[in-house]
Design brief:
Blueprint lengths: L2 H8 L1 H9 L3 E8 L2 E8 L2 H14 L6 E7 L21 E4 L6 H9 L5 H7 L15 E4 L3
Helix pairs in contact: 2-3, 4-5
Length: 144
């Protein structure tokens, strides 16, 4: 077996990774009794993975000369940005009228006067007591 085939065989895992990683291999030949490899990687991360693979095959890489550059033009185009999620729907609101109670508002919105505590909990930022609401207050009405 000649030196080129011997080194190609030895560094086969590196050559396979180059092929799988969309690295452009420009030169592969024997020079000064070493395998000479020149390639362009799409990213620094890919270049690092190739070097990691070279070191796994031969930690000294004393029978290899590798010249790996980065060519961003080889990188796949960035994925289109996903449309931002729509904001969550704002809770319904209700303006307190004369004679209203949380129970009455609860019956009107939930069909059950006993669910008034849900309205109270949703409005803890402005209510201290479920029995004390004021005309004109704007209350958040949570989803039923």
């Amino acid at each position: 077996m000649d030196r080129f085939e011997e080194l190609k065989s030895k560094y086969q895992p590196v050559l396979r990774l180059i092929e799988q990683s969309k690295v452009r291999l420009q030169n592969l030949h024997v020079q000064d009794n070493k395998l000479f490899l020149r390639a362009s990687a799409p990213t620094q991360e890919v270049k690092n993975r190739i070097w990691d693979q070279i070191k796994l095959v031969n930690p000294k890489y004393d029978d290899l000369t590798a010249d790996i550059t980065i060519d961003a033009g080889l990188a796949p185009p960035p994925a289109p940005a996903a449309a931002p999620a729509p904001p969550p729907p704002s809770p319904a609101t209700y303006t307190v009228q004369p004679g209203d109670t949380l129970s009455k508002i609860s019956k009107q919105h939930f069909g059950d006067a006993n669910k008034y505590m849900r309205i109270f909990e949703a409005n803890r930022d402005q209510l201290d007591d479920p029995n004390k609401i004021r005309v004109g207050q704007v209350l958040k009405i949570p989803k039923p």
